[in-house]
Fold:
Amino acid sequence: MKKISTSIIILTKNRAQLLEKNLSSLTRQIIKPTEIIIIDNNSTDKTSKVIKKYQRLLPIKYFKNSGSGYSKLYNFGIQKASSNLICFLDDDCAAEKTWLREILKVYTKNKQSVIQGQTYSLPKNNLYAQIMNDHYQNWLKSNLINSQELKFLDNKNAAIPKEILIKYGSFSEKQGIGSEDLELSIRLKKNGVKIIFAPKAIAWHHERDNFCAFVQQHWRIARSEASLDQNIDKNERIGIFPPKKTWLNVKSFVKRLVQLFKEGNLKQAIKAVAIYPVLFVTRIAGYLLKIFKVKQLPEAV
Structure:
């Protein structure tokens, strides 16, 4: 495979333990990245110590940035990147050792396209993570245009050629609270740029593993999607419950309940029955309150 320069952009804030797992996974990559750009949004934990430790093992460029909003931080990282291919990996993700190799395999055949990796949830035995894993896989299924092409990208595990970002613009800073990747997807698709699914480019995402963090995460997602719908054309809007994804989520809920009952795990089954109505209400409330510009809970980091 011809050498292709790669920059991995990682945003982080006060997640030193998860960042260490992320960087440890990058030390094991079969194909090494050209550079790793870490944007630290004013961490007050041991983040800087973790980064200094891994600077001896990886080609890390470390920047502190006090900006607010994911888009501004991502765009700052893109400005600092020097490679042909810009890869994105969340600080709470750990990549399989073949992750970058698989991205590059797909990229070499689709050099004018965005590459979307596959992401699974951790911890595996946690009900909140299992629900998020179901939701993520349903998101992928609902956004497949064909066997290989997606409608949207998810920048927790993706790669975009830098020339595409230069030509069509990077992340919209109107989307400061999230869904900046969805807005970019819409803009790129309008310009004929394909988003190609790379199912073997696998990363493991550490989910919120308790009730409060889980609800807060869905609150933020709902508000970010409402913000997106306010900033895009009417025919592109996602809405509170996209029909195909919602139906897949209902099926996943039933399937998980049946599985829990078959396993004799009555406690977890009752817990799941309680979680889903809360999730339903949270998504509606978060979306509508953002639409009507009502200030509520602080945005989750």
In short: The two ends are 38 Å apart (CA to CA). Residues 6-291 form a domain with the Spore Coat Polysaccharide Biosynthesis Protein SpsA; Chain A fold (CATH 3.90.550.10). The chain has one domain: 6-291.
